[in-house]
Amino acid sequence: MQRRHLLAGASAAALAACSRPTPGQSGATAVGRKLQWKMVTSWQPNFPGLGAGAARLAEMIGRASGGRLTIKVYGGNELVPPFEVFDAVSRGTAEMGHSAAYYWKGKNAAAPFFCAVPFGLNAQEMNGWLYHGGGLELWRELYAPFNLVPFPAGNTGVQMAGWFNREITAVSDFNGLKMRIPGLGGDVMSRLGATAVNIPGAEIYTAMQTGALDACEWVGPYNDLAFGLFRVAKYCYYPGWQEPGPTLECLLHKPAYEALPDDLKAIVEVCCQAINDDMLADYTAQNHRAMRSLIDEHKVAFRRLPDPVLNALRQAAQEVVGELAASDPFAHRVFDSFSAFREQVRVWHGISEVPFYQARG
Ligand code: CA
């Protein structure tokens, strides 16, 4: 009798613990149970494209799961700072995160390949490499020791080269330029004489306004209009050589993800793939509207970077990416996979996408 009571007490305690899931323990008996997760992000809450995309992802998972998995979304600094998303999800402070892998290049040399490589892959090509070219398997392998499962979860499409307070007519104009530019693009700019810094998006406007920065790249018309960057820099250049199709990431705390029943795992996976597609559609629909507004209402004259400047950037990018691959065995494996895919798809798109754009005029 005593023994039966003890067992009953233990079961009740276990059930009570399960009804208040904590990170890493949230799903072991989760079939039919309602889970509440946290998602930390590197973006301002509901910021167009990025923050709104993360919120749509959370909403979609809640709806698709019939409320069995609901997710509360936190903007940058609401629970953790924007650049601590990786660590927060790794240690289980939150079960999910939404961010960009190139922010973590200080932790792992291979990380930028899963977001943006200068002169690398566009959005369509990134999806091809990640989903059907071996990229996602490598990404999962890279993040596994950090207790993280990554999913592609958004893409902005080709970005802009950025906003500058001086005209760029030659590579020498980069000398001494203080520019906000994260990831490998920052390393390329440093090689050409600039000082590259990385600060969260929310801090860019003030840094430009106060003169702490001479130049910045953020995303493109949709997001740059929202930040009002046209007010703090005279020149906007294209194309976004540094981010031809950056993949955003949804990070899952591995123990929490693995404890999910199979149908919720599938819902998370499918919703991530849906937002990966939907965010690109949002940018594609909004960027050209924002571009018109910047031109017509705010009198922004977009400029193309001169060919000699783009050639110098491409040359420096090859050096930077090559040295990165040589610095780390895993980065070399990723580089080999990425480079082989890029070369093959470059040839194919050379007789499909590229001539179509040219023929369309
Ligand atoms: Ca950017």
Which labels suit this protein?
361 residues; alpha/beta; D-Maltodextrin-Binding Protein, domain 2; 6-stranded mixed beta sheet; 5-stranded mixed beta sheet; 13 helices; globular; disordered N terminus; binds calcium ion
Topology:
Elements: H1 2-19, E1 35-41, H2 50-64, E2 69-74, H3 85-91, E3 96-100, H4 123-132, H5 135-143, E4 148-155, E5 162-164, E6 178-180, H6 183-191, E7 195-197, H7 204-209, E8 215-216, H8 221-227, E9 235-238, E10 247-253, H9 254-258, H10 262-296, E11 302-304, H11 307-327, H12 329-350, H13 353-360
Parallel strand pairs: 1-2, 1-3, 6-7, 6-8, 9-11
Antiparallel strand pairs: 3-10, 4-10, 5-8, 5-9
Helix pairs in contact: 2-10, 4-5, 6-11, 8-10, 11-12
The chain binds calcium ion.
Written account of the structure:
This protein has 361 residues and is of the alpha/beta class. It has two domains: 195 residues, 3-Layer(aba) Sandwich (D-Maltodextrin-Binding Protein, domain 2), CATH 3.40.190.170; 109 residues, D-Maltodextrin-Binding Protein, domain 2 (3-Layer(aba) Sandwich). It has 13 helices and eleven strands. The chain has a six-stranded mixed β-sheet with strand order 7-6-8-5-9-11. Strands 2-1-3-10-4 form a five-stranded mixed β-sheet, sandwiched between helices. Helix 11 runs antiparallel to helix 12. It starts with a helix and ends with a helix.
Produce a short descriptive summary:
With 361 residues, this protein is an alpha/beta fold.
